[in-house]
Amino acid sequence: xxxxxxxxxxxxxxxxxxxxxxxxxxxxxxxxxxxxxxxxxxxxxxxxxxxxxxxxxxxxxxxxxxxxxxxxxxxxxxxxxxxxxxxxxxxxxxxxxxxxxxxxxxxxxxxxxxxxxxxxxxxxxxxxxxxxxxxxxxxxxxxxxxxxxxxxxxxxxxxxxxxxxxxxxxxxxxxxxxxxxxxxxxxxxxxxxxxxxxxxxxxxxxxxxxxxxxxxxxxxxxxxxxxxxxxxxxxxxxxxxxxxxxxxxxxxxxxxxxxxxxxxxxxxxxxxxxxxxxxxxxxxxxxxxxxxxxxxxxxxxxxxxxxxxxxxxxxxxxxxxxxxxxxx
Length: 328
Fold this sequence. Notes:
By secondary structure, the protein is an alpha/beta fold. The chain is built from eleven helices and twelve strands.
């Protein structure tokens, strides 16, 4: 017979104790802030599709650094907007390319800042696809050559980590090989291991000017119906020498973050993408949700699923929430 005096209890006590026994912990060190660097001078412009985020020319990156320092954010990932694009995306690996300029400026002004670079072609090609075309199809092997040159140029400019996001087969092994051969054995590779052909990327493509001029990217990004395929992609990147595995997007793919955490003994990153950010912003502006609360709850759900690292446009705000004890 059930003894009513013995009941399972949910912890009801002070805020101090609740924080002490939290099961999911987050640190500002686990947050990465995406930054858009645009060729030119005196550019500091809010991105209409991403309220609160900006395009910076290299000479204006001090503004980003001041904001990051004020909030305790010390890790960024750079995306470049070149002034000129061509069919092969040659600006991606140019020694004076826009990302290379951005790396050098950040390291000049804030040597302590950890700079990660997105390695892809879509921002640099005139057609907006993530590689070298053969007709209307991306040529995987030709694309590997330019991805390797791009990753190496980023490391030579001072990048602390490179993050290939193209989803070409074999790119992690080739990038690791060229970095090692040129003395950059200590530059890690964070692989976009499970990157889906998602509808959540719209605001980013507007911000980066990277929408494809024809077709779509489903031939090289993943079908969002598939989960087992994502684990195969992760396994291949582990075998090729990836240091960190990423799942992108985050909120609609929590099951894959959880499964990657369960299967692989590597740090797991998740990218809370532009569409996720924009939806929270739009719903908050319409008075439908509490922006701060939803931001915090969404971030915690990603870490609870198993992520070790979160790439998020809310990095500064989340760092503040952690410091105040609202999360973390």
